[in-house]
Amino acid sequence: MRVTAMLFNDRRHAGQVLATKLSQYRARGDVLVLALPRGGVPVAYEVAHALDAPLDVFIVRKLGVPGQEEYAMGAIASGGVRVINEEAVRYLRISDEVLDAVAAREEKELERRERSYRGERAAPDVRGRTVILVDDGLATGSTMRAAATAIRSQRPASLVVAVPVAAPDTCEEFRSEVDEIVCAQTPEPFLGVGRWYGDFSQTSDHEVRELLEKATRASA
Predict the structure, then answer these.
(1) Where are the domains positioned within the chain?
(2) pTM for the full model?
(3) What are residue 42's phi and psi, to 5 degrees?
(4) Per-residue pLDDT tens for 70-93?
(5) What span, in angstroms and rounded, lies between the C-alpha atoms of 107 and 191?
(6) Could you give the angle at which helices 96-118 and 205-219 cross, rounded to 10 degrees?
(7) How far apart are CA 220 and CA 54, in angstroms?
(8) Residue-wise over 52-67: b if at least 16 C-beta within 10 A, else e?
(9) 11-59+119-219: which CATH topology?
């Protein structure tokens, strides 16, 4: 059966809708909202605001197939985590040398974003906390999977993945990988994350820094 999905005006609107699915986490002292930059930050800002929870970023970089960069063959995350889409690598016959070259390039961008978004501020301690990982959507899930793996290694009390829209199969796969998965919409056919947004323009580094600073002031 084909499901009609909601069309979000933009990422801020999507975050407001997603927040309504997470109301059980509101005003809890142990909750930390972590956004996957850049597109996940406007979504997560609205979630953190609605839940009265602190907001920070968790940097992850997709490993795109050379010449088809939107197609993920894996991802890397802070802390040296690398998640590979083994099926894609086998199907496309991606060599270890190509994979390592793409990963090295993305590692440089990951480090740049860490400095740009956080500066000298230390990364948040997630041990014993309920972490809500937020992005603007899930397609293959490789980027979110890398983030979840990295966060798990830091021993949170609970790990929740939350997105406004996701491919149905990907959303279902995450049920066995995290403590809770919240996908506000799972349209079929999926057709890509951007299909379900009126405005899916790129989020800038400036907007990321601005929203993080605004969230920090609100928490203080």
Answers:
(1) 11-59+119-219
(2) 0.85
(3) -60, -35
(4) 778 888 887 777 888 888 899 989
(5) 29
(6) 50
(7) 9
(8) ebbbbbbbbbbbbbee
(9) Rossmann fold (3.40.50)
